[in-house]
Amino acid sequence: MTYSVFSTANNSNISQFKKLCEQHINKQEYPFAHDIINNVIIYDGDHLHQQSKEHKQAIQSEIYKALASGSGIIAIKNMWSDHQLLNQHNEIFNQILQEETVSGIAADHFAKAGANGRIWNSFQKVALKDADSFIDYYSNPLLSLVCQSWLGPYYQVTAQVNIVRPGGKAQQPHRDYHLGFQQEDDVALFPLPLQVMTQFMTLQGAVAHSDMPIQSGPTLLLPFSQQYKEGYLAWRKKEFIEYFNEHAIQVPLEKGDGLFFSPALFHGAGNNHLENFNRIANLLQISSVFCKPMETVNHTKILSNIYPSLLKKYQNNQLVHLEEIITAAADSYSFPTNLDTDPPVYGLAPMTQHQLVKTALTEGWDAQRFTQKLNEINHKRQA
Ligand SMILES: [Fe+2]
């Protein structure tokens, strides 16, 4: 047979897929986990936080294994323990939705009109509305722990709010960004190893901003399905959809819990069967700094807006998780840049926004000086 790095949907094999999806998680292989439910590896947020001080890399290795070669799904109970903060965010979400409804830009491209409330780029919109809430939310050390497990020290956060109202319908099973958003014929043009590799550049997550009992339709997930190499070509096929519909599981979540899964996992939102109950999630998509995220985030706008609050908190010793919030809010990578105008500062890499924020805070720059310098480094990066 001639060797080929390419494949097509016709090559997908449901029996290989079933064999992968019939695996089971052995709890003993996940010593930091609190429980295993339906092959989902469940962590206790407080316990994880305590343990991470001493065993950070061991935990990160365990999380990586769970997502890559385990079932592909983890949940962290009580990841955001400050419910007041979540309530504040929910109020901001409502304000944004109202404003977007009035201005006519509110639209969900992935659901029937009216069934869903969707806020694209909630990450930037919240940062511009309420700097303190944004800082408190995205400095969560457990978020950083999980993101770093998959993507290393620096990463790019994007977020979208999804509010599923009563009667909201289930989504078809699918895979996510990158290749989950491409047409099947286009996917087939990418070498198979590259298709497989893309899943390691993004981490998919959801923060429960309301309780999510099973009746409210939390995400349907098919454990181990991320391991199927031809999955980006196969998820539209009838026999794969049928298998998903028979075997997908759901994890009930409580407000403040976090759910993370490989973007290659077959999944889809469930039906909301409850009356008078909105299921609210802040969906997180966290990307490697080596790739293009799905949404444009204007880090300069975010940093300019939150800097005064950051400085105040820093000077009052209230910024316990400095590294975490800077990594979330700033562009932490030197490239792409213009090497004519933006030569390396330390080692071989030009200065990043991340380094600039840290310098500004430790040297106590005022907001005007910070913004001016930020604009300068942005300008130098333009070609
Ligand atoms: Fe999805």
UniProtKB/TrEMBL annotation:
The keyword rRNA processing does not apply. GO terms for biological process: fatty acid alpha-oxidation. It holds the Pfam family PhyH. One of its GO terms (molecular function) is phytanoyl-CoA dioxygenase activity. Signal peptide: none annotated. The keyword Oxidoreductase applies. Keywords: Dioxygenase, Oxidoreductase. SUPFAM superfamilies: Clavaminate synthase-like (SSF51197). InterPro entries: PhyH, Phytyl_CoA_dOase-like. This is Phytanoyl-CoA dioxygenase (PhyH) family (PhyH). It comes from Commensalibacter communis.
